[in-house]
Fold this protein.
Amino acid sequence: MSTKPKKFLLSEQELPAQWYNIVADMKNKPLPPLNPGTKQPLVAADLEPIFAKELCLQEVTQERYVDIPEEVREVYKIYRPTPLVRAYALEKALDTPAHIYFKNESVSPVGSHKLNSAIPQAYYNKMQGVKHITTETGAGQWGTALSFACKLFGLDLKVFMVKISYEQKPYRKSMMNAWGAEVIPSPSNQTNAGRKILSLHPNSSGSLGTAISEAIEAAVSTPDTKYTLGSVLNHVILHQTVIGLEAEKQMAMADEFPDVVIGCFGGGSNFSGIAFPFLRHKLTEGKALRVIAAEPASCPKLTRGQFQYDFGDEVGTTPLLPMYTLGHDFQPADIHAGGLRYHGAGTIVSQLNREKLIEAQDIPQLESFEAATVFARAEGIIPAPESAHAIASTIREAKKAKEEGVKKTILFNLSGHGLIDMSAYDLYYSGKLTNYSLPQEEIEKSVSKLEKLVP
Ligand SMILES: *Cc1c(COP(=O)(O)O)cnc(C)c1O
């Protein structure tokens, strides 16, 4: 038995007091988002009809550090700081010389990292006097996180939930109801955006893009109401850096600095959250570090998408964001990692990917479930199907270390647990899941419709 420490824990006093904004340390800043009407660079005020004012300011800030409000830190302490774990049993199962660590975000009461941004978003809205919040949710994690956060701050919440998840993951809906939110399957006939999609595709299983369109429309057409987003945007990524800031201190306790940092990739929030505080040392001190975004092979925006201005939603109501995209009307396959079924990547991540400061891997669905199973049988935690993509990349890197006979330190983010995703595991174990290979023509078809605003 190993007597070396397995868990690295911080005290509540060591909870970070500030979030980290990597834009301050980027030599080439991301291109500006554009107002879709004027095609001119967006200013914070353009976002204020949709989002709380403080979040609009955070969206465009160039400050390196942003203070975490004391009220937010107090709520974070319900589950933060989260453990950093050395995965000895996984290392043994893989017979690898690699040292594998994971940051365990699955310990949050809602089961994923999403609460890290839901809490400050609810807080800033409450401080501004907002009464009602709308949002969308894919697999249901963002909706559950925000339901709890809104309840804590006394806000009323309406969630547009992607229809396929509403049907496949009924317990996520039950959780949102438990925390007092109203849940509507999207596309719905409550909004113009939903009605339009239903008239074109009556059997649409929904997408995050459509649900975003519906939630924004519902927010701007209802008094005292704001919209919130659980990924992609700069302010969400800012909040999630609490993950990497803690992990940085914990890796130092383990007396290691990672050679590779890995996160699964939907819109980029948990990936950026774990990676940016480490990437800072590569940008500012030239430290050797690889950072890998693990995305599903069926929704491969970073590995196969195009860098172009595109909308964040399907109908085209959001600002135009410079990002790696598959096209805003791209319809991802119905894979079980619902939280990764999104057409684009955040603008900061996209700029970093363009400059090859980060890399991406696309993971087939079956490889992700195989990796999840190896991890669960070694470490005991059943990972979210999304997180399983990060585990698959970790296993690839650990096997490579074995082949090459080199010691390598790998850190990945366990973004959530899979205890409410067991129906997907059942399908996998009964041999009913398949890989989905995406034809290049399908990507080109949706990307070719984009206006070429990037020279
Ligand atoms: C939402 C979600 C993701 C994907 O979203 P990102 O913004 O890319 O992090 C990944 N893992 C889990 C558990 C999620 O809930």
About this structure: The chain has 18 helices and 15 strands. The CA atoms of residues 97 and 407 lie 5 Å apart. The mean pLDDT is 95. The domain at 69-111+235-439 is CATH 3.40.50.1100 (Rossmann fold).
